[in-house]
What does this fold into?
Amino acid sequence: MKLYDMAGPPSPRRVRIFLAEKGLELDREEINIREKAQFNPEFSSINPRLTIPALQLDSGVVLTESEAIQRYLEELYPDPPLFGDTPEERAIVTNRLRMIEVDGYMAVAEAVRNSIPNFENRALTGPRNFAQIEELGKRGIERIGYFFEDLDAILANSQYVAGDKYTVADVNALVAVDFAGMMKQAIPENCPNLKRWHDEVSARPSAKA
Ligand SMILES: N[C@@H](CCC(=O)N[C@@H](CS)C(=O)NCC(=O)O)C(=O)O
It folds into this structure.
């Protein structure tokens, strides 16, 4: 098994934090997307979607979605459980993951990729080029604020994002909140529950991954 990875970008960090929580190390290769290494034929033949993380299994199959990688690793290494212990917990984790992906990660990506000059003509990842749309950049910023508020409301009633246990929902939410920092969007004063949670999960050793 081999993980195509890079320190810095958010999606691979989701997998690295998950691995750290499981106490796992994988064989890794860096794909430096700042230097456009995702376009090199050696990598594009492995992942034609041109994104990291990518996990190549011993069978040759390549997983190109961080959540698919996390779920696969959970099946292989169930302890500690990070997707919930019961059907209800697992359903809540999945529910939260979807919210984090759509309302959090995608909102920040929308802002970043439609406003930062480095992403000119690269408003979406992948093999096809897309022009930036300024209005989408602005909408992304607005949506980040709502994401913070919605997470704060969840965390007003529970210690962690999917209940009273630390799960993969905390991993991916932490990465989305930190990713918002790329647009200089910090946790606002009116989100004390989010701040309390962020301090707590950031203090876990895995957060350094
Ligand atoms: N849905 C994918 C997203 C992967 C993704 O967008 N990765 C970014 C780094 S965070 C990337 O590879 N970008 C390449 C590019 O910008 O061309 C996942 O969850 O893993």
